[in-house]
Design brief:
123 residues; mainly beta; 7-stranded mixed β-sheet; 4-stranded antiparallel β-sheet; 11 strands; 0% helix; globular
Length: 123
């Protein structure tokens, strides 16, 4: 079965950096675009970033543009999210997911979710 395992979260001060990883098994991610989402307490899950199947195209939610970078290593079946200049409002559980179809700029057609990794940014 498909499993996505996120890691790399933690507690960081505002302005700091973290690098999240998402390791996939049971599915070869090189055939799919991939995305990162986040969910803050009391809020709905929201889209953060997406990357095309070969990594040539990326798409970001406006509030993270210029601060976050999504990348992938298909040989390792892993997707990454480099987060710089973190802000307290970035505090959330971060999830990766597989995009089964549709344009990269669409936040629909995602399936398979990991357990998430907690990111906490203190002010």
């Amino acid at each position: 079965q498909v499993q996505l395992v996120e890691s790399g979260g933690g507690l960081v001060q505002a302005g700091g950096s973290l690098r999240l990883s998402c390791a996939a098994s049971g599915l070869t991610i090189s055939s799919y675009a991939m995305g990162w989402f986040r969910q803050a307490p009391g809020k709905e899950r929201e889209f953060v970033a997406a990357i095309s199947w070969r990594g040539g195209s990326t798409y970001y939610e406006d509030s993270v543009k210029g601060r976050f970078t999504i990348s992938r290593d298909n040989a390792k079946n892993t997707v990454y999210l480099q987060m710089n200049s973190l802000r307290p409002e970035d505090t959330a559980v971060y999830y990766c997911s597989v995009k089964l179809g549709g344009p990269l700029t669409s936040t629909s057609q995602y399936s398979y979710w990991g357990q998430g990794t907690q990111v906490t940014v203190s002010s």
